[in-house]
Every structure is written in C-alpha cells, then in structure tokens.
C-alpha cells in the first residue's frame, strides 16, 4: 500500500469504499492470521523447546488429546503464555473504533487469540474458538485454563473429566451456531472487509463470496493478494495495522462533514 491510501491520488476504489462505509448500515470485518501476525502472535510452528519436535496435527486433534492429555494440555498452556505477552495492534484498535462510526459492525475471526475483544470490539464471532477458554469434555462446563508441572492431566472441578481448550481441532466441525451467525451477518452486510486472510480455509473462505452475492461491497486488505482477491470488488495491499487506521480516519473525517 502506498502511504495515504485515501489522500494520495484518491483512487477510485478508495473513494468507493469510503462512500460505501459512510452509508453502510451493516459492516462485517472478517479477519485471519495476518492481522494477528502483526501483533507478534506465534504460529503453530513457533520455536519453543520441546514443542519443536511435534507437528501441529500431532497435537491439535482429539486422538492425540485422549492418548496423551498431559502433552496436549502442556502445549496449549505454552501457547497461551506466548499469546498473553502480545497486545492488540493498530489494526485491531481501528476495527473497534470503526464499530463506533457505523450502525452495526460484526467481527468474524478465524483467530483464537482474543485480541479483538481486548481491543474493544463487542460483537465478535470466533469461528475457531478461543485459546483462553477451556471446557470439560464430559460435562461441557467452562473450566479455568490451567497447567502445572506435576505430570497430571488437568481435570474438571465438577465431574473430574478432562479439560480441553475451546478451539476447533483438526478434523472437527465449526460450531454450527457460530458459522450460521457469520453467514447471516455476511448476507446482511453492506460492506465486507476481508483482513489478513488466505482465502484457503473453508468453510470460512466462502464468507466474502456469500457477502458479495448478497450485494455487499467486498474489499480485501492483505499484505499480498489472497486466493479470492481477483473475485472481490477491490484489494488494498498493505499491513492491516497501517491500512485500517487510515480507513477509519477517513470515515471519521467524512462523518464530521
């Protein structure tokens, strides 16, 4: 992205997006790993001592959890500790600020780090869950995330069942209620912003196209075009932490007349 997307040259696409946001009644911001990477959120393959010996699909699945709950719980405890050290970046903050400038804004995210909530967004649909939440696999009660070095599995304080992270593992289906609400929000959107997504993970990758078929103006914001970019209305190339604050500043200036 060239600096000053809304001010330098006034690209046709920039003007169109600004006009659409000014008049939008419903906006969806769909986010993927790209926006979290700008906060320093580690990927599955981040270096971490003993964890470097394992592939993600060896740990992030039900079979591995039942076979060795201590190992899997330990890996997720390690990942939570890493994520707790990072903070929302200007992209997350700009999305929360945009919520105050439009009648309705829904964040649909594939990320499990909870950074949108920490930035101040209020209407968030977490397609893949949240790593900071845990629950019992037997009674389904919420459980406090925990792990110690005692080599004992963390168990539910109510029924003694094993405690797992509230995330979608390999081979698991998305929560039908959450993906259903995301689909509904996408169909109702006037503007749909796809931010930091690869366009490769389904069924989530369908949402921009669902929105577009329903009449939304769909714009991608990404450091490189995704697999869906050529089908969308516009593509802004650049980091979300630079592009989104500029978008929000432009909407704010326009709302002031």
Helical region count? 10
Q: Specify the helix fraction band.
A: 25-40%
| CATH homologous superfamily annotation of the largest domain | TPP-binding domain
Q: What is the 3D form?
A: elongated
SS-derived structural category: alpha/beta
Number of domains: 2
Account of the protein in words:
The protein starts with 11 loop residues before the first helix and ends with a helix. It is built from 10 helices and 9 strands. The longest helix has 16 residues, at 69-84. 37% of the residues lie in helices and 17% in strands.
Short recap of the structure:
This protein has 257 residues and is an alpha/beta fold. It contains 10 helices and 9 strands. The model has no long low-confidence stretch (mean pLDDT 89).
């Amino acid at each position: 992205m060239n600096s000053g997307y809304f001010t330098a040259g006034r690209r046709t696409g920039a003007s169109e997006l600004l006009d659409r946001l000014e008049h939008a009644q419903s906006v969806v911001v769909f986010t993927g790993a790209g926006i979290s990477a700008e906060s320093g959120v580690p990927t599955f393959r981040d270096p971490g001592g003993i964890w470097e010996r394992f592939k993600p699909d060896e740990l992030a699945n039900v079979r591995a959890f039942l076979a060795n709950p201590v190992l899997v719980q330990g890996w997720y405890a390690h990942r939570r500790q890493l994520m707790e050290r990072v903070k929302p970046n200007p992209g997350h903050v700009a999305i929360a600020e945009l919520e105050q400038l439009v009648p309705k804004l829904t964040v649909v995210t594939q990320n499990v780090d909870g950074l949108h909530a920490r930035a101040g967004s209020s209407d968030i649909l977490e397609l893949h869950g949240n790593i900071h939440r845990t629950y019992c696999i037997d009674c389904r009660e919420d459980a406090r995330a925990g792990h110690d070095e005692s080599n004992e599995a963390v168990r539910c304080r109510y029924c003694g069942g094993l405690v797992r992270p509230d995330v979608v593992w390999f081979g698991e289906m998305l929560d039908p209620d959450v993906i259903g609400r995301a689909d509904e929000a996408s169909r109702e959107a006037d503007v749909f912003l796809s931010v930091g997504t690869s366009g490769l993970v389904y069924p989530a990758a369908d949402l921009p196209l669902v929105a577009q078929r329903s009449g939304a103006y769909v714009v991608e914001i990404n450091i490189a075009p995704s697999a869906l970019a050529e089908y969308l209305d516009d593509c802004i190339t650049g980091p979300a932490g630079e592009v989104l604050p500029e978008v929000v500043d432009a909407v704010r200036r326009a709302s002031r007349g």
